[in-house]
Every structure is written in C-alpha cells, then in structure tokens.
Amino acid sequence: ALRRLSHYLLAHYQKGTRPVRDWRTTTNVAIDLMVYAILSVDEKNQVLTTYIWYRQHWTDEFLRWDPTRFDNLTQISLPVESIWVPDILINEFVDVGKSPHVPYVYVSHHGEVQNLKPIQVMTACSLDIYNFPFDVQNCSLTFTSWLHHIRDINLSLWRQPELVKFDRSVFMNQGEWELLYVLSRFQEFSVKSSDSYAEMKFYVVIRRRPLFYTVNLLLPSIFLMVMDIVGFYLPPNSGERVSFKITLLLGYSVFLIIVSDTLPATAVGTPLIGTYFVVCMALLVISLMETILIVRLVHKQDLQPHVPEWVKRLLLEQATVLLCIRDRKKFSRSRTQSSDISRQVDNNDSTAKLNHYGCEDPRECETVGGARLAPAFAGQAEGSPLMHGVLREITAIRQFLEKREEFRDIAHEWLQVGYVLDVLLFRAYLAAVLAYSITLGTLWSVWRDA
Description:
about 45% helix, 7-stranded mixed β-sheet, alpha+beta, about 20% strand, single chain, rod-shaped
C-alpha cells in the first residue's frame, strides 16, 4: 500500500510549481519554533548561535488521496526532494550551521504537509553588553519567503502566541544563558513600493547567568578595595603604608590582566564593569597619592618651616570639630606647651647664671648687694679667658637645645596636621567609594531583577 500510494502521488507530480489548482489561491504556511539550546553569543562579531526545532505546515492540493483505496492509509512520509517546499528563509542568517539533514516530510490524505527539522541558526544580533554580566539580549529570527509575494505565500503561526512565549519544554537550561521567553509577531513589508511580503518574527529573549562573573570578577575586586580602605588605619608616619598601597596597586594590575580575556569586547561600547575596574584603579592611585602626601607632611626634616596660621585654624581647630575627633583638645594645647617649655628654659638659664656668681638663691643676691658682687667680679677678672670660654660653650649648648626643641615642636605640629588631614581625606575617600559602590549595586540589582 505504501509503494502504490507513493507511486500514485509522485508519478505525475511537478515540484517546480506551487501546488494549487487555481493560481489565485494563496498557499498558507503555518510555522512554529521551539528553542532547544543557546550555543554561543559572540559579542565581538555580534553573532548569536542557537539550536531550534523548526516546524512548518502547508496544504498541497496535488498530494490528496482516498484512504479506502490504499488500505485505510491516512499518512505517508515522502522524500523532501520530491515535492514542492516553500522557500522560507531567516533574514538574519550570517552563516550555515551544522544542521542535520532530515530527508522526509509527513503528508496526510487531506494534502497537509508537515516539515519538521532541527536547525543550527547563526544569526546577526545587536548585542548590548553595557549591563554585563547582568545583561538581557533580545535577538530576532525573521522567517519570510525570499521570492513569493503575500498573494502567493502567506505566513501564520502554528500555535497560539501564549503557548510559544513560555514554551521551555525542550530547552537545555544548564548553560550560561537562560531563556526568558519567545515573542512572535506577524507583519507585512514592501521594498520600494513593490508587492508586499509576509514575514513572521520571533524575538528570542535570553538572560546571562551572572554567578560565575560575580565570583571571579566582582568579589576579588571588592576584596582588594576593602583592603585598601583598611590600609588607612596604619599610622600616617609609618612608611609601611606606602609599600602596602603599592602592593595593592600592583596586585590589582595583575588582576586586570588576568580578567581582560573574560570581559566581552566590542567596537561599539564598553560594558559598565570595565568602567568599574578603571574607576577602582583610579581610586587606588588616588589613595596612594594621598598616602604619599601625608607621609611627606609628617616626615621630620631639619629645614621644615612652621605650620602657617591659616592651616592651624583650618585643620587643627575647625576640621577637628567637623570630623568629631575625640582628642582634638591636645591640638589646641600644643602651642601653649611649647611656649611654657621656652619660658621654663629661660628661667633655668637665669638661675644658672646667678648661681654661677655665688648665689644659692636669687633673692640672696638682691639683699647682699655690692658686698658679695665685688669678690665675684674680682674672681672673674682674674680668670676671664677661661670663664669666657665656659660661657661660650654653655651658650652654644643652650642654643642647640632650644633649636632642637623648636624643631621638635615644628615636627609635632606637622604630625598633628598630617593626622587631621589623613582623617579628612580618608573619610572623603570612603564616602566616594561607598557612593560609587551603592550606585553600581543598585543599577546591577535593577538590571538583574528586570
């Protein structure tokens, strides 16, 4: 019965013409699509490779028979090369994929032909990677007849659009990309006022799973930035902070070199995560510059000038109140302590001079008067060269001690200025990092949940 039916159908069949008895009759082709897998997404070349199950259905008026004449046979498979097949193509095709060849189609006794085949589709798609790795891509597959007008071949959807939209029954859901839904739309178009063509568009909406990129890209960068913030708690007059910051900067540079191949590359734009890495690198450089500035301020030098008065008022008085520094009272006592030390040194020197001339108590010299001074001047007159030498040495020692005390006070003032400036810059840096992190976290959370 199969052989007789096949010979009956194909003996005088002409596959070169559209299978209608009246040329005015339009051949309606119903198509359907199910996404099986997302094979690859090439951001650089803007190419999406998918594997789909494609089905099309049309009526062939020359492939009808009476089942009672052929042992009640209602369906038969025929070679696809032996019958007419509509020239339905995908407009976005950029390359021929490795699709298996299905040599047969099913034909029912009413002339209904079903052509079911899997296709590996390599299509052009406008990929927007700005939201990487929380990006959602929308790629279209446009099915249309390349030659026949809508009067000859019209397209329709085999199933209801709601059934096509959320059909994930055959989708392999273990890859990097997640299938959200498939939208379908029919439309007509014409080229330069010519006859209209029918086309059926399927919009494949997919979303990237960001867990891999979050663990391997975002978390290491966040850890390095946290270590940079913790580095501010090292003493500002310690040189270890500079070496620590330089080590972090070098480590972040090596990290960027390693992850550069993971980031998608396009000639159109840069993903936001690339900007995030660049800004983090800039923040590390700013942190290193701030550390170098603080170390330069607090480093003790012999020719270090006095702290300007406007700097003292701005940092040691106003900034300490603004920053709520607990021990800010010691900054205001610094100049008072230095002046007290100078007065104490002067009093000690005057006492030493009076005692040198024979007075145990300065008041004794006032009561005794000239009677006690005359022998002292007489003794000084006798040993004047030796006495002058001793006085010169004592004066030099006193000047050296005063100078050293002055340098010590200056270094202490600059250390206080550096401490307050370090706290101020650290809080400004922390505020910038937090604002930047909250902004990016909010954007990525919105994109992930969209």
